[in-house]
Amino acid sequence: MSVTPLQALPIDELRQRSSTKWRKYGADVLPFFVAETDYALAPAITRVLTRAVELGDTGYTPPDPGVREAFVGFADRRWGWNVDPSHVYWTGDVMMGVVEILRLVIEPGDRVVVMPPVYPPFYDTVEEARGVVERVPLTQSDSGWEIDLAGVEASLAAGARAVLLCNPHNPTGTVHSAAGLAALADLAERFGVPVISDEIHGPLTYPDKPFTPFLSVSESARRIGYAVTSASKTYNLAGLKCAVMVAGGDEQAKRLRALPWEVEWRTGLFGALSNVAAYSAESDEWLESLLAALDANRRLLAELLAESLPEARYLPPDAGFLAWVDLSAYGWGDNPAVKVLREAKVALHHGPLFGGEGKGYVRINFGCAPELLREAVERIAALVRS
Description:
It is a single chain. By secondary structure, this protein is an alpha/beta fold. It is built from 16 helices and 14 strands. The protein has helices spanning about 10-15, 20-25, 45-55, 65-80, 95-105, 120-130, 150-155, 180-190, 220-225, 230-235, 250-255, 260-265, 270-280, 285-310, 335-345, 370-385, and strands spanning about 30, 90, 110-115, 130-135, 140, 145, 160-165, 195-200, 225-230, 245, 315, 320-325, 345-350, 360-365. A seven-stranded mixed β-sheet has the order 2-10-9-8-7-3-4, with helices on both faces. It has a five-stranded mixed β-sheet with strand order 1-13-14-12-11. α3 packs antiparallel against α13 (about 270-280). The longest helix has 25 residues, at about 285-310. The radius of gyration is 20 Å and the shape is globular. It starts with 10 loop residues before the first helix and ends with a helix.
């Protein structure tokens, strides 16, 4: 059955939004930097939030807002992952969940493996938990990026006490293979360290490379693992605070249960309501339309770069709406986003913020109208011609 791609909202409507994407820069700048998308909300989310406003339902989040059951159903439907409901808890956002779990599993000064180039808050989160970042970069080839298992093993053997995984990976869009995840789980269990997997981009995986939740990959993963995720990235709900923390086994669930009540209280009521609506079967059709639009855009970006910026290096992502593009061949410095913003009036995310491996790179958000993406590339390409 064919799926009709979701249509982005007109730019004049988007510029009425009050979020960071549309308020950080002036109207002369095209914003492609932050991970917000340009589509209308899924109808089920619009209905539940509209009704809440009509009722004045703006109070405290209830003890059981339905997030657990909604996520369990979604995981089973979308990924065939049978999640034990007693292993599911919630908090305000994914990085909040990550830092709270890190506080549970490491001591101050412990080293935590991260895999750059990686989402910049990973570094801050480790430091907030009073850990020390241990960098084990992904390995890169013409076919993509992979976990450096030998590097992880060396770090664990040298005393690193936890692994912070990004699955699917941001900014590369890599969907880690089941074999790679299973090997990582075996390594972690051998050294007695936990793995915390940020899986916020999991629902945005394309059919050609299916997503494997870390906790589903093996018994080893379940014995040492935690996952943290949210509907916020897929359904554009970052301003409505809600994320899910999933324990791999009973022991981890016991630890999550012992977290201070405030960790769950940080969940916003609108966040909980919208996550439940997003995870419902009613929103699946909207998600399929979103994925069709994003799939077309990741391919369109490849065509536009090949035509207008042929020296750019770009591998379409396996998941998500974020493109990791190497512009170093154009000699625009370690952080080409600075020149692109100043001279082309296109705001891109700064590659070096993802780690030293990001020098010469930019991250481009293609969760937008195709014509907007085309205009952005044309503006950037004009810098080469000038």
